[in-house]
Amino acid sequence: MALIEIDDLTVTFRSKGREVRAVEGVSLSVEPRESYGLVGESGSGKSTILRAICGMAPVTGGSIRIGGKPVPVPRGRAFSTEVQMVFQDPYASLHPRHTIDRTLSEPLAIHGVPGRDARVVQALTDVGLPPAFRFRYPHQLSGGQRQRVAIARALMLRPKILLLDEPTSALDASVQAEVLNLLNRLREEQGLTFLMVSHDLAVIDHMCDRIMVLQHGRTVEEMTRDDLASARMTTAYARSLFDASADRMLDASTEPTP
Amino acid sequence: MTTLRAWLSDPNPASRRQARLGQAWLAWQRIRRNRLAMAGLVIVGLLLLVAAFAPLIAPHDPLTQDLSRRLLPPGTPGNLLGTDDFGRDILSRIIFGARITLYIIALVAVTAPVLGLLIGTVAGYFGGWVDATLMRLTDLFLAFPRLILALALVAVLGPGIENAVLAIALTAWPPYARVARAETLTVRSSDYIAAIRLQGASSPRIIAGHVVPMCLPSVIIRVTLDMAGVILIAAGLGFLGLGVLPPTPEWGLMISSGRKFLFEQWWVATMPGLAIFIVSLGFNLLGDGLRDVLDPRSASR
User: Fold this and answer.
1) Which domains does chain A have, with CATH numbers?
2) For residue B296, what pLDDT is reported?
């Protein structure tokens, strides 16, 4: 049974009498431990799908099911322990006046989880940060280190599903690879399911088993990683996206993977 | 000393307390570089010391009358700043008046900003009709001239220091609510609030633990800058006979009693006026300095 099932999802933003359909009739299903990628230009509605899952976008049609059950409205605490999200901009997603320790222990405090100190230290080591960073503030960390903290925070409640909203697009290339490898390792270790958004096919190719290409809020094409690697796309739009990042994908595949 | 400094500026603090003290140390370093802010801090510090040790510093009892020594000019031996129309020593009255000024400031500082923060953050965080209701209420209070509203409240409640403080606090909160709401609006749609909401945090927890810390610096700055205004309103109420009652040595009241002979015995009204001026200036300078230190936009570097 699929872990995430989205059926005919429509998201409509209303503002001052104007309606904008950000997502129209998108359906997808993600198996447990699978990594699923959403690709498209900005404005294609890919981030909106993630936000709709979290209850941060107005769903006006269709259904979202996690583990076979429709998501509750409002999402509630049980949902927090199943689904977590990593945001795009690590400079905006950490509270500037909280130490790393506070940021990481807050979810445990909300859910009344015992043994916080040990779990915070464990979480830092899991994402490859020295425990000495525990009482630093976000402004004392680099972008990549911040994103590692954001990943650690998303994993504090041990969710099954991680929604990744362009987790590396704000980072420079070398740090980007480190964070992507970290995410792959964590998925392996903790048996996570990824639903990942990116505008960069090279990143998606590195991370995802299956891919959906979106344009103007509609599905253009769904394909597997093998289809992508051998450039077997059926639509012209998907091909143009592929051509735009093909050279970097070849680079990535010739590099030995650690 | 050097080990303490190293401990405070350690980039990898080992405990929550060390991290917090380290941040305070950095803020202190920043304010120390600002000369005007230091001047303000010294004035406010002196006010605190004078108020704390008033009985030790004051040369005379502020309430003892001596009609044979009334209206003596400044510089008279034994009465450095002269005496008033009842022969009371003006310097002693100013020194004891510092206590009352500080009492009023402290009471206003713990009531008005707290009320304003609460209303502003709740309005900004929830938005919609909650925001509309609370902000129209705020507008209602802002539409009254502050002193007139305070006057009306004191007239209803009766004169006295507590009622004066209550009146000032009730008229002082709307600007804090405005500031807090504006900050909340910029914060509420940020990713870190979305993240904590996704972690299952309740609205009171988000407001108290995540929104208020972001609003606090602007409110603290605003409070410090407003303190001068609070002193002036308290003095104004005293001047009009609606604040502190005589014979309590309150600065506004002292100016009021000196008004009758402002041209012949100018020092009776001028000396407490100078005290108000210096303390107001001190709070304004300190507020400006705190803006440089606490402003989240400069501190986030």
Assistant:
1) 1-68+162-167+197-253 (3.40.50.300)
2) 46
